[in-house]
Structure formats: structure tokens, C-alpha cells
Write a structure and sequence with these properties.
By secondary structure, the protein is of the alpha/beta class. The protein has eight helices and 17 strands.
């Protein structure tokens, strides 16, 4: 495999800067060595990364359960749970050196917030033509939403309720609404999320006042109350998908009432596995590439709720996670 000569002759004392979570609610940008690339690696200069508020907030607050620490490790996470850790999984950058097939290309990687990195060339995916780097930070979220739709087994004509107009919930409703004949309703307790739903052509309802029965109900809100509402709105033998992740929080599920007589099903969805009915044909790589293809709609830029320069990220990061109006917050690298 040929190698690009771009960046040849770099010194061993090259460094990178990365955001580390040092203790509950405390982060810092650390400088770390960046050795010369090996033959199988690419050197990537970061352009943008995306903050996934729900998962990163759980990690930042030290709420990853002991039992889930191994499964929660990102592909390129630094450190060990609970702290210190370097965590994140939505980075878009420019390949400065590496295999000729990648050199000079804009790529996506499941990598923490870091300005320069060496990464196995097999772990980066070039952006498809027409997908802006600025929007490609949504790739991991879209991949999660695609997996949820697969787990939900949504069929043409289904009435679908999606709880939680965060990034993943909105993308899930967006994908569901594009299945022929479906009636998809995005539900959120914040009435201001109606504008987001409208921008994507989605029907919206606040948390209260939803009536009727649904065939498929998806909770992506992170709120146990939404799961209880999903159970109450489920039709006979309906499928309920719990796509939230609660960390160490305990959740009470109301299984009385008509839960058994309606023969309801509650299933989990987690992006770390491809659903069994897809696994024989769909690799992680194929799923990731399809997620990028699904981001070609410019209306999805509405999911980027703000942008911060990497140089300012250490001070701004806690506020970004605490802001209730944060969707996908984009980090810009110079």
C-alpha cells in the first residue's frame, strides 16, 4: 500500500491537545505526545467534533455503572472509568498523511475531542460527496437512530410515537417518517422543540395531551416518565423500544394495569450491536456509511445548536452539557 509523503519528516516530539474528564464535573485540555505514524496509520487534523450531550454528560458526571464500564469504552477512549478519561465519538478531520487512498480526504472517526491524532487507517471513513464536514459530526447520532429504527421493526402504515426531541430522538422520528405510510409523532415536554420538528417536517406534540394508540413507541428521552407514557399509549401487542441509557439511575417501570393483557413488548436498543435480523449482511462499516448517506438533507443542520472553538472548550464544556437547549454542540478546530 502506497503512503503519502505529506507530513514526512515530522519529529518525534509532536504533540496533540485533547479534552480529558478529570473528576465529576471537571475537565481540562491536556497536551500529549503524538508519535510518528506507523504504516497502518493515518495522521488526521481535526476540523470539527460533536458533543453528544446525553452520553457525555453521564461520563462527565461519573455515572457509568461498574458493570458497564467495559461496554461503555469508546473505540479510542483514553484513560479508565471513572476518571480520568478522554471520551467522545464524533470527530471529522482531514487526513494529513497515511495511505494514498486517504491522503487529503475529509474523514469521520469515532474519536474523542482532540486536535490531531494518529489512528488506524481502517478506523476512518471518508465522507461521501456532498456531505459537509460541519454536518458530518451527526454521523454517530444518525447511526444510533438507524439502529433504533431497525430494532423497532417499523413497518409501512404504522403509527409511531417517539419520545424525546433530542438529537437521537429527532433523527429517529425523521427516519421513521420517511417509511411509506407511517404516521410518526415526535413528543417532548419542551414546547419550544416544536420549531425543530417543523424544520424537519415532523408532527409534534408536547408531553401531555397525546391520545390514541400506537403500534410502535420509542423512548429516546432519558426520562422514565416517558417510558410510562409509552406503555399507557401502546396498542395491543405493540412494541416499545427503550433507547435511553440511564447509567446508575434506577428506573421504575409500571407493569400493572393493562400491560399484560395487552401483551406489550419492551425491548432495548443499543448501537454497540447490529440487530440480529441484520447482522448477517450489515457490518459496522456498512451501517456507518449508510448513516452518512442519510445526512445529505440540509434541513438536518437544525440539529446543530451551537459551536465553540476548541481553544475555549475547557471553560465552556460544563455549561454546554448543563444547557437544556443543547442539541448537538459542534467544536471547531483551527
Amino acid at each position: 500500500m502506497g503512503l503519502s509523503t505529506a507530513g514526512a519528516g515530522r519529529e518525534c516530539n509532536d504533540t496533540a491537545r485533547a479534552l480529558w474528564f478529570e473528576a465529576p464535573g471537571r475537565c481540562a485540555v491536556r497536551e500529549e505526545p503524538l508519535p510518528p505514524t506507523q504504516g497502518h496509520e493515518a495522521r488526521v487534523k481535526a476540523l470539527f467534533s460533536g458533543i453528544s450531550r446525553g452520553t457525555e454528560s453521564t461520563v462527565f458526571k461519573g455515572l457509568v455503572p461498574d458493570s458497564e464500564r467495559e461496554r461503555m469504552r469508546g473505540p479510542h477512549m483514553g484513560g479508565e472509568f471513572p476518571f480520568p478519561v478522554k471520551y467522545g465519538y464524533a470527530l471529522v478531520g482531514l487526513v494529513e498523511e497515511g495511505p494514498e487512498t486517504l491522503a487529503g480526504k475529509t474523514v469521520f472517526a469515532l474519536y474523542p475531542h482532540q486536535d490531531r491524532l494518529n489512528i488506524d487507517a481502517a478506523m476512518v471513513t471518508p465522507l461521501p460527496p456532498g456531505l459537509p464536514a460541519e454536518r458530518a459530526v451527526l454521523t454517530a447520532n444518525m447511526e444510533t437512530a438507524l439502529n433504533i429504527v431497525w430494532d423497532a421493526l417499523i413497518q409501512p402504515g404504522d403509527r409511531v410515537a417517539v419520545f424525546g426531541a433530542g438529537v437521537v430522538g429527532t433523527l429517529t422520528a425523521y427516519l421513521s417518517s420517511r417509511i411509506a405510510g407511517t404516521e410518526t409523532l415526535l413528543i417532548d415536554r419542551d414546547p419550544e422543540r416544536a420549531a425543530l420538528a417543523s424544520a424537519l417536517g415532523l408532527d409534534f406534540a408536547p408531553g401531555d395531551g397525546v391520545a390514541g394508540e400506537f403500534d410502535v413507541l420509542i423512548n429516546a428521552s432519558g426520562a422514565p416518565a416517558a417510558l410510562a407514557q409509552a406503555i399507557a399509549l401502546a396498542g395491543i401487542e405493540a412494541r416499545i423500544v427503550e433507547a435511553s441509557w440511564y447509567g446508575e439511575r434506577r428506573v421504575t417501570v409500571p407493569l400493572g394495569g393493562a400491560f399484560h393483557s395487552r401483551r406489550l413488548s419492551i425491548v432495548s436498543s443499543q448501537v454497540g450491536s447490529v440487530p440480529p435480523h441484520r447482522r448477517a449482511r450489515w457490518t459496522f462499516k456498512r451501517r456507518l456509511e449508510k448513516a452518512m448517506d442519510l445526512l445529505q438533507d440540509a434541513r438536518l443542520d437544525a440539529l446543530i445548536s451551537g459551536e465553540t472553538a476548541f481553544d475555549d472548550l475547557q471553560a465552556a464544556y460544563p455549561r454546554i452539557l448543563d444547557a437544556t437547549d443543547t442539541l448537538c454542540h459542534r467544536v471547531r478546530y483551527t
